[in-house]
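Would you mind giving me a polypeptide sequence along with per-residue structure tokens?
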Amino acid sequence: QVQLAESGGGLVQAGGSLRLSCAASEAIRAVNTMTWYRQAPGKQREMVAILTSGGDTKYADSVKGRFTISRDNAKNTVYLQMNSLKVEDTAVYYCNLGGLRYTGGFIGSAWGQGTQVTVSS
């Protein structure tokens, strides 16, 4: 079964930048939605950014103008560029691919294991 591997998290000072990657273990033939979520301690998981197969994007109000979601089809990878990071962006970030058709089959929803982002003041 296809697996998603996130990377790029770490510790950064407020105002800094990070780029998260979400790489699929198998070639992606089609995908309906590519979404980044985050979950801070004691809080519910929230949608951060979504990219549809048609190229539409949507962002949480808290990250608009600072975060950008994108994909590289050749690398089977989805990215989240995060600029002007704030302390409140600290969370575990997860990627999700919805309606994923890959070389081995189809899965309705695939999740990565998460990557920690910590923003210090």
The chain has a mean pLDDT of 96. The chain is about 0% helix and 60% strand. The longest strand covers residues 91-102.
